[in-house]
Design a protein that fits this description.
The chain is of the alpha/beta class. Strands 2-3-4-5-6-8-7 form a 7-stranded mixed sheet, covered by helices on one side. A 3-stranded antiparallel sheet has the order 9-10-11, with no helix packed on it. Strands 12-14-13 form a 3-stranded antiparallel sheet. Helix content is 39%, strand content 20%. The chain has 3 domains: 3-207, 2-Layer Sandwich (Transcription Regulator spoIIAA); 212-257, no CATH class; 260-353, no CATH class. The termini are close together.
């Protein structure tokens, strides 16, 4: 596949989108061996996703042997009641044991995923989780707000009145206090939901937020690449059986050509999640458009909540709380004032590629 893309530079690799650590070690080792032969010496950040119940010393030693240098573990919560609400097949004891195992047996980077805004949660329990996690000194913590997506069990329970969402005041207090505690512990917030010690931001996720090209491999894998007609979103089939049929990458994929306006909106949706914001000069060059002039009515409306630092523009702390409203205004303007550019004229992507 990389050959067909012109052998681009691949700087990060993320094995996840499920629970790869549940795969038997003998099979996982063969997979990692094949990847190592393909990528040795090319990868800067090499991450594998783990669940607490699948962490054991032999696994960590194997991952280190095959050059994986970053773990991302989905703890979500250390409160058994919260875990039950989330439908997680684990508990506090298993999670703390996994964290201790990583602390004793892992020398590389560690990210811990936590979830806030869960019904029944309060400020005290949220801060208690963070304080415990900080004891193992991960260099990165992702703190996500729970969302009730349609067609999920949580959404169904919410509609049935069996789950009561947190009040806006409690939800806001959890977010503010959690952020303050993380900052006091040395974790700098660089994205809406992500904190790291200095210099240990997630390179793989930064590529998404900076709208770099990426290649997703496997059932349901998604990619964003450039074609003759402009940027395209490629989504592979969900069925493992269909995916394994001996056909080309593109024949087992659904391909969508991204219109210039939609692609510009994606740059704002992703870039404004970062506290450093968007580089307007970069955006001007990608879309051959003076973005300040094009979006002047929106920038004028939001001027009091925008920050300008050289060529970069971002939202201030008050504005970031209204990110969705800001993006809706951007979307409405793009819809009413289509960009005068063809997809093939878009100057994208950067040279590197993430996988």
């Amino acid at each position: 596949m990389l050959n067909s893309l012109g052998n681009p530079i691949v700087e990060t690799l993320f094995i996840g989108g499920g629970t790869p650590s549940v795969v038997p070690l003998t099979i996982l080792s063969k997979f990692l061996f094949a990847l190592k032969k393909m990528t040795e010496g090319r990868i800067i950040e090499y991450t594998m996703e783990l669940n607490p119940e699948t962490v054991y010393p032999e696994l960590l030693k194997t991952l280190e042997y095959y050059s994986i240098n970053r773990l991302s573990i989905g703890i979500q919560s250390l409160d058994d009641q919260i875990l039950k609400i989330l439908g997680r097949n684990t508990n506090r004891e298993t999670s703390t044991r996994a964290l201790e195992t990583i602390g004793k047996n892992w020398k590389g980077s560690v990210n811990v995923d936590l979830i806030n805004s869960v019904p029944g949660q309060n400020v005290k329990s949220a801060l208690k989780d963070i304080a415990y996690i900080a004891k193992i000194s991960p260099d990165h913590i992702s703190l996500y707000n729970l969302t009730f997506e349609k067609s999920t069990k949580l959404h169904s329970l919410l509609e049935q009145g069996k789950l009561i969402p947190l009040s806006e005041s409690v939800d806001s207090a959890i977010q503010i206090e959690s952020s303050s505690l993380l900052e006091s512990l040395g974790y700098k917030q660089y994205e809406v939901s992500n904190y790291s010690v200095e210099g240990r931001e997630s390179l793989h996720n930064l590529n998404y937020w900076n709208m770099g090209a990426y290649l997703g491999i496997g059932p349901s894998g998604a990619s964003t690449l450039m074609s003759r007609n402009g940027p395209v979103r490629i989504e592979q089939l969900r069925s493992t059986k269909e995916y394994l049929k001996p056909v080309s990458f593109y024949k087992r994929s659904n391909i969508e050509i991204l219109l210039p306006g939609s692609f510009l909106l994606e740059h704002f949706m992703m870039g404004f999640r970062l506290f450093k914001g968007l580089d307007i000069i970069d955006i001007n060059n990608i879309f051959n458009t003076d973005i300040f002039t094009y979006l002047h009515p929106v920038f004028k409306k939001w001027n009091s909540q925008l920050l300008f630092n050289g060529s970069r523009v971002s939202l201030n702390k008050q504005g970031i709380l209204k990110l969705n409203s800001f993006l809706l205004d951007i979307a409405a303007h793009i819809d009413e004032n289509p960009l005068n550019i063809q997809g093939s004229e878009i100057n994208w992507p950067r040279e590197s590629l993430q996988s």
